[in-house]
Every structure is written in C-alpha cells, then in structure tokens.
Amino acid sequence: MKANNMNYLSEIEQLSQADKLYIWHPFTQMKDWLKEKPLIITEGRGCFLKDIQGKWYIDGVSSLWVNIHGHRKKEVDDAIINQVEKIAHSTLLGLGNVPSIKLAEKLIKIAPKNSTPSSHSKTLTKVFYSDNGSTSVEIALKMAFQYWQHKGFKEKKSFLSLKNAYHGDTIGAVSVGGIEIFHEIFEPLLFKTFKAPSPYCYRCEVGKTYPECNLYCLSEMENILLKNAEKIAAVIIEPLVQGAAGMIVFPEGYLKGVKELCDKYNVLLIADEVATGFGRTGKMFACEHEEIVPDLLCLSKGITNGYLPLAATLTTEDIYNQFLGEYKELKTFFHGHSYTGNPLACSAAIACLEIFEKEKTLEKLRKKIVLLQERLKRFFNLSHVGDIRNKGFMTGIELVKNKTTKEPYPLEDKIAWKVIYKAREKGVIIRPLGNVIVIMPPLAIEEENLIQLLDVIEKSIVEVTEKKIT
User: Fold this and answer.
1) How many angstroms separate the most distant Cα atoms in the chain?
2) Which of 185, 193, 302, 339 has its CA 20 to 30 A from that of 213?
C-alpha cells in the first residue's frame, strides 16, 4: 500500500515537473509559475473541479467564463458522443454539415431583435463560424471594412473602440483593444484606430460623476464621429460590461446611445458578446438590456458550455448582400478556418442552447442574481474594497490601498493574486484582473454553493488586506 502511495506521489511530481518543462501558459508570468506548485485539474462535476490530489474546488470563474450549465453536463456529453459516431469533422469550404445548419438556425432565432422596428432597425440573419472569440472579432472587422469598400466608401478604413477595451489577442483584435498592460508592447504591429473614453465611472478619466455627467463620455464619442465618420467603418464595443478591464459596467443608457450615434453618423456597430453572451448578464445577450441590434454580433466562450472551441459572427442581410456578385468580381469574403463549423462543436452548442430552454436557465438565474447582489453589499464594509461592479452573473470587486483616495495597490504587491491563493486554500478557484477580484461562476451553480463561494472570497479579502478574520 505504501509503495502504491509513493508511486502516486511520484506521478504527481512528474506531471508537475513536465508542466514546468514543456508548457508555456497563457497570460501567465512564467518566472512566478516556475516557483509554484502547479494546480492540475483532473475532473469536473457541476460547478466543481477536482485537482490531481483529489481536492475539490468551486469553479468561481467558470473555467475562464466558458462554462454555463456545469461540468460533465449529460446532455452535452451525449450530443458529442452521438455526433462522433457519425463524423467528427468536415469542412464548410464548399460543403455543408447538419449540426452547423441546425445551430445557425437556432442562433438566428435567439439573436437580439428590435422590439419597435424603425428605419434604422436591422435583423441578424447570417452566421459565419470560426473557433474562438478573437477570430470572431477579426471576422467582424474584416466584414465591416469590406462592406464599405464594396459600397464605394473607400475612405472607411478605420475603427472606433473604447479605452479599456479587450477584444482578443490576434493583431486586428489587439488593434481595437485599449488595455495598455496587454497591448502596448505590440503597438508597432497594430493598425491605427480611434479611441473613445471608457465609461469607467469609478475612475472617470475626466473627473466627472454619474449621473450628473449626463454621459459625458458618450458626447466625447460623438465628437470623434463628428470629425471622422467618413473614415470609420465601425464602432466596436463590449456591450454593458468591459470584461478584461475589470468588469467595468456601463451606466444606463450608454449602450443605446452608442447605437444611436452609429445610426446618426452612418457607421456600423460591432457588438463583442464573447464574454457577455449566453446569459451572463441575466439576458441571453447583453444587447437585449437596452433593446439594440448591432450590425455584427461576435459570440464564443459559453456557446458550447466550454466543451469545444467554437465562435460565430452574426450579421445582417444588408452586409451579406454586399458580398454577392459574379465570380470574376471577387466580392467573396476570403476568410475561413480549417475547423469552421466543426460538427462536434456545433452539436455541443445545440445541446447547450436546448438546455437553456429545457431547464429555464435564465428564469432560474433571476433569483440567484438577486441573491448575489444582496450578498455583495457586505463587501462594501471591507476596508480595502473600493468598488463593486455587477451585471447579472458578472462581478468585479476592485481592491484599493486607500478607500478614501481610491489609491490602487502597486502592481508589485500582487494583492489580488494573494487573495485568490488564499481562496484556493479554502476550496475556491478564481482569477483576478489586476487589482480586481472576478466572480463569474456557472449559471447553474446552486444557491448554497454561491453563498459558499462569496463567503470564501470575503474571508480571503479580509485575511489578505486586513490581516485578520472578522
């Protein structure tokens, strides 16, 4: 028995060493990683993850915001198994496949709709597949650019995005990003874009206060459009919540105001719902909160419940029609991926959407959102919690060195990382963004586990920032 235990410990150690020898982890300071004991996950059930030593944790960030209905969801498991018995992959370049067709129809049916059609209203009718959020954004950018070229607006070559924006890691997506810590190093590689102020009310860059500001940041966007609309193909935003910036939640009316400006100045609107889509904000899509329909809608993350890589870019008949022409006109959208519309991934996505209907996921989520919002109020009493931002099941708790002055903790303090390691000791896996603690569990988390998650995070913040338990 002792020998078996030794062999098991040896296997754990071998895996830990192999991880450090061979794997370069994303968004990870590898010098720090090499000093740590890697947490290696072997199993998942519901909202829980198990590590290689058998310890279970609450998955407090949905395995990087992708898990919706919980791990090992039987309906998704079965959908993939059933599909793999038919075919695992077939290209969409010149061919079709059954799951991709069925999924496209479902996506169009649930896509944001105009409640009061007007001369500006558009309907999302077409689906272009890819395999991750960054590529769904790249596709939207290229479609928007090529759309205007076909229409004869040759000067519309640029884009307007927000400061603090994050739209992915590929060069085009980084070009419309606005987080210096992620993007500044790549500046020489990027195409030039226009940047409007972020609606970051807690740290307003012009020192104003909402709602007295009357959405000053929106008027700043209009100033840019007024001067440069003839050069701008599209505005791209993360509707309602700038995720990677630290869960910056837009003030009411901002999103609708952006759409109105796009219509007024004849530019397209790209809504990047990679993070906010599929129920995260309390509705299926964040755009629905202010009843806007974008010209291009980017989706990924939760689309397959985190099972397989898949993304979709939805667009309108108007944009699609500009790419129709004779073969010799070369109006084709020359873009595609080897795994575009992969049948396994599409089957998982279909199952994921069917669970929303069968289990009334969004309806059940309402009570949990209220519970979350009520429980978050306690965090305001903590000495080093400066701001709490929440929309639906997307929450950011910003830690500050000085609550009165809003002075942030220095980067070298790694204060949020200390909190997440403390939470890990207590059986919770979360991941910070700078000084912001992110809370984004699976939508299917049970209320008792949600309370447990919040209790652990509160205690961890107190222990790290106040050096005592209250």
Assistant:
1) 77
2) 193
Instruction: Check whether residue 346 and residue 426 sit in a common domain.
Output: no
| Residues 111, 105 contacting (CB under 8 angstroms) | no
39: left (phi over 0), alpha (psi -120 to 50) or beta: beta
* The two three-digit tokens of residue 68, written as one number: 């919706």
Q: Do residues 415 and 460 both lie within one domain? A: yes
Q: For residue 201, which amino acid is it?
A: C
* DSSP track, 234-256: EEEE-SSEETTTT-EEPPTTHHH
Mean pLDDT for 294-323 is 97
pLDDT (tens digit per residue) in 137-180: 999 999 999 999 999 999 999 999 999 999 999 999 999 999 98
Residue 22 lies in a domain: no
Q: Contacts for 91-98 with beta carbons within 8 Å, 24 or more apart?
A: 91/338, 91/340, 92/129, 92/336, 92/340, 92/341, 93/336, 93/340, 97/341, 97/343, 97/346, 98/343
Span 54-104, pLDDT tens digits: 999 999 999 999 999 999 999 999 999 999 999 999 999 999 999 999 999
Residue 119 binned pLDDT confidence (cut-offs 50, 70, 90): very low
pLDDT tens string 383-401: 999 999 999 999 999 999 9
Note whether 141 and 288 are same-domain residues.
yes
What is the number of domains present in the chain? 2
Residue 189 · residue 171 · CB < 8 Å = yes
